[in-house]
Amino acid sequence: MEHITLQPRFKDSPHFKNFWEKGNGKQLIELSGAEVSFDNFEKFAHYYDHIDNAGDEVVKEVYFTKKFHEASKEIEHYIRNGVTEQDNVPESIKKLFFQTQRKPEWLDKELLKNGAELCMRSGLDALISLRDYCLIGGYDYAYLNKPLIATEALKKGAVKRLSETLDFWVNATRYDALEIHAKGYEFAIKTRLIHSYARLSIKKHYKNWDSENWGEPINSWDMMATYIGFSLVFLHSLLKLGNTFTVQEEQGVFHLWKYVGYLLGIPEALLSDNKKQATEYFYLWTSVQPPSDQDSVLLAHSLLNESLENPILKFQFQRKNLRYLHICCTWFLLDDDACKRLQIPDVSNKNGFPKTKRLFNTIYNTIVSREARIKAGNKRHLKVLEDYLNVTKGSNFH
């Protein structure tokens, strides 16, 4: 079936206008100096039907012709040892790995280092931002979440899903993590193939996929929006929590995620270099997304209740308190409209913890050296990741 031309169909809807005229979107425009309009809409709209064909071909040739563990072992061999023209491997493997092994001309190692250092020195604020703004805020975009629903992510459980996201983010944001054959590079390739595997499975098994409204499953435009969450939205959240960063660190975070996006097969035309570009790109994408639906609410509450299900904290009162703190941060970081749509519980004294955190950060960032903050933040990230991996190892935690 031929697709009708995509339009910015929600540009006059209250959720869109309130976000960009009164809420976090307005703050992003002020922060970035973005000049938002729909002049370039057609330049980006076709990416709603664009997918990573290179990744899909690898999945068809490798994963769909072997047992899953055998296919995974084969891919790990290519990741860790590289692929050359002389290797007797499928053409799809050569195409994908020749792209990921070729460093783009724009790649700047110093900027990658700056980006990694800001991610590390942000410590627990980075994890709060990823969870209580980037991840749960993404659930407010109803169509973006449809692949999660189609692949039954809710059955997998929020603890496992959060563990996987944390594992990817931590391993992609350390020193030299994205060097070819390094851990972050490995995670990017594996994540790319997981996306392709999920997309092909959805197209084969999920008969109710509404491509007219939702675009292709895990399409390139949705991927762009997801990775803007790791850069633009992430930085906005750090600022809200009282953190500061240099121009070089800010540019570094955008550069780091631009390169991750490149490794993931996102078209380079969608990879933003700075906050101005990212805000302008994000503006266009949000115009095709409706607000939260029932699936969004289910995903949000699954994430909120993760604190109660997760056995990292031994006692129930500790888990309830952690859930309360995450709810407070969600209200503080997200727009009230989004929180109401996602049916986030309205708790008492919800600004107390985030405002205290902001005050603490102002003092901490003044009296503790940058190097010490990088070291301490890295240590905290690795400890939290270790705890999550310990409770989810064997992938049978639901």
Spell out the helices and strands N to C.
HHHHHHHHHHHHHHHHHHHHHH
Q: What is the residue-averaged pLDDT?
A: 95
In total, how many beta strands?
0
The N- and C-terminal alpha carbons lie at a distance of 38 Å
Give the count of helical stretches: 22
**Helical content band:** 55-70%
**What percent of residues are in strands?**
under 5%
Shape: globular
Q: How many separate domains? A: 2
Low-pLDDT stretches are none
Give the class from helix and strand content and strand pairing.
Answer: mainly alpha
Organism: Chryseobacterium defluvii
Pfam families: MPAB_Lcp_cat (PF09995)
Protein name: ER-bound oxygenase mpaB/mpaB'/Rubber oxygenase catalytic domain-containing protein
GO molecular function: oxidoreductase activity
Brief summary:
The protein is 66% helix and 0% strand.
Structure notes:
The protein is mainly alpha-helical. The protein has 2 domains: 53-99, no CATH class; 111-174 and 211-392, no CATH class. Helices cover 66% and strands 0% of the residues. It has 22 helices and no strands. The model has no long low-confidence stretch (mean pLDDT 95).
